[in-house]
Amino acid sequence: MIEPLVIGAVAYTPNVVPIWGGLRDYFAGSDAPIDFVLFSNYARQVDTLLAGHIDIAWNTNLAYVRTVRHTGGTCRALAMRDTDTTFSTVFVGRAGSGMSGPASLKGKRLALGSADSAHAAILPLHYLRVAGVDDADLQLIRFDTDIGKHGDTGASELDAIGAVLAGEADAAAIGISTWESIGRDELMPGALEEVWQTEQYCHCMFTALGTLPRERWQPWVTTLFAMDWARPEHRRILELEGLRRWVPPRLDGYRTLFGAVAEQGIDASW
Amino acid sequence: MVILDLVRAVGALGAGQTAEVAAVPPELDTIRRWCEQTGNTLVRTAFDQSGRGHVVVRRGRVPDPHLTLGPDRVPGARLWLYTNFHCNLRCDYCCVASSPCAPHRELGAERIARLVAEAADCGVSEVFLTGGEPFLLPDIDRIVRDCASRLPTTLLTNGMLFRGPRLAALLAMPRDGFALQISLDSATPQLHDAHRGSGSWAKAVSGIELALAAGFRVRVAATIAEYRPNTVHALHTFLDDLGIPRADQIIRPVARQGAATSGVLITRESLVPEITVTADGIYWHPVAATDARLLVRRETEPLRPALDQIHRLFTEEWTRTQTEFALFPCA
Fold first, then answer.
1. By CB count within 10 A, which of A23, B6, B193, B255 is most buried?
2. Contact list, A186 vs chain B (CB under 8 Å)
3. What ipTM score was computed for the predicted complex, to two decimals?
């Protein structure tokens, strides 16, 4: 009998249970059976991975960066969603605000999501700095609504958008997935418009310690990549998890986050 | 802003759960478009005369019944035919109140052959012949051969009449694409005989053994009034020893239908339809084949209109039950 790989994931939505129950069923009988453990926050999940109590962690980009830093780069990136490879941050303002491009945000009130959200807090400030807009040029309004979840719930971004709509902020930094979930500027005509969108970067990543033997992780990755959108029983899980197919790691998509974490002195325990 | 309310409310739901979100009628088009774009389902709207109200939205799409039920259980996959209603037994839980005194109400071999031929053309994949006791019909072997030549067929029987001409009829039935489903409620006579008549258990067991020895696939179905783990376990063990595979050991509850004065209450909403033809009409499900509330059409032929009607009603019912019974008001 093959010892199951233990996967860690953070329970940021009730759907995490059917997702991982479905994945456990999918992997059952393969060369890489799994079990899973759910955490309430990414800090605990990364600590548990580092302690060797789980084999693989389903990490956000910040949790991946933290794992890399704690392991001196010896951890192993295994797989990600296709949608993780094209993530970006969108700055949105009230329609007709006249703002366009990063420079137009100078002197404005910018609403950010939870401080541990790479896409709604850390990277927005990084990209603005790169574009010549320093923190001092902005009045930052933070919504630390789902600290610990690295912005996964999207709740803090909705609060940031709400602040813009209420006239309490001039712009909000939100993930592209949240922008799409509210229908971009199509479903609320006259309400919001895009001010600026960052370049693409990568988001979530399955991460293992470098000590996990290849014969343990390789069959698991092979089986994971065999999930097929065209098969209804697979599609149900893929839809819930927000992807069409699993893809190999693209490590260059994390370079900016490594830089942002160092530059902003992000808490090493997040 | 209703979109934000939707994202917040529906985003916090598990798949299949529903939420109420306050809305006004002019927002309905936006809500519909949001649901379409995000893969969620607008279940219901409720507005009062002043235009205030709410919408109910389901997280995700309504599941495909083919995936949930399996291809062999979706409406239209199975055709049940009540060959007759008279029976040599008078079981106290019989869902159609069959007995020696019940009017025969036979479908007849010719009509059965036509129905099965049309069913095959309509995509039905499996036929079940039931009654009454079908072995009381002198031409049951012909009926079975006609059915099995077109579709996989199962014949439900109490297994007690395999003697003389009826044994000859049994032995003349095909072995391929055909199964017998014999009723046996317990591993010992007491419980079975209490419902079905003294001495019936021993005859049923003999019938099972005879049919197995003759090379038939035999399913065994138990109807139980009260689930008792030890009783069920003993029955499984008994059937294992007879050589009945677990997949062919069926345990089902008593339905409060026909002669039964207690048991599971049956409504159209609680039954996934399995089109059922009797001499009296076409019904929603075999367990309610004398229940006027579940009569679909009085005309038994052609089959297609009833199939279409059942499919339409089921689709409506499926959407409703998959949403409303997960209602979770949160706004």
1. B6
2. 33
3. 0.85
